[in-house]
Amino acid sequence: MSDETQGDATAQENTPSMNMVGQYIRDLSFENPGAPGSIMAGGANPAFNVSISVAVKKQTEEVYAVELTLNAKANREQTVLFNVELIYGGVFRLKNVPEATLSQLLMIECPRLIFPFARQVLASVTQQGGFPPLMMEPVDFAAIYRQNMAKLAAQQGATAPAAPDGTGKPN
How far is CA 158 from CA 14, 135, 155, 171, in A? Predict the structure, then answer.
């Protein structure tokens, strides 16, 4: 092997990469407490409350599970039409990713890749529950990441003891 070929192989081995290994549903719960009456009842358009959160669990040195938790609830006046919770995950292999960009990759790009599949599960379940499919709008995971980082910084700032030297860093 020539030095040039060996250098190319080394560069390829050290190139950052991300691969999706698989996807899964960890938890799926659909409640339709008023069925069948809730399906036949008319009236005002229902009010929807939808929330989303992202969690990361390190599996091995290079493998991470990224899970989206989607909660959706529909009410008409004081009556719950449906309540659905979905925990949808993706398993990702990340190699040679710099530590500085690892959290952004795991909390923004990985959720962005699996969200369309989780959204489809949510739409299908609500439709099979007797309602129109719930189609979530696209999610700005970068904005969620920034909000979470700001909250974390505020919490750390509130709980960190002030340094006597005025630097803000504990001794």
Answer: 39, 39, 5, 17
pLDDT tens digit sequence for 38-48:
777 666 678 88
- Which contacts qualify for 84-87: CB closer than 8 Å, 24 or more apart? 84/28, 84/29, 84/30, 84/31, 84/122, 84/125, 84/126, 84/129, 84/134, 85/27, 85/28, 85/29, 86/25, 86/27, 86/28, 86/29, 86/118, 86/121, 86/122, 86/125, 87/25, 87/26, 87/27, 87/28
- Closest Cα to residue 51, out of 72, 81, 75, 68? 72
Q: How confident is the model at residue 165 (pLDDT cuts 50, 70, 90)?
A: very low
The model's pLDDT over 109-146, given as tens digits with 9 standing for 90+, comes to: 999 999 999 999 999 999 999 888 998 999 999 998 99
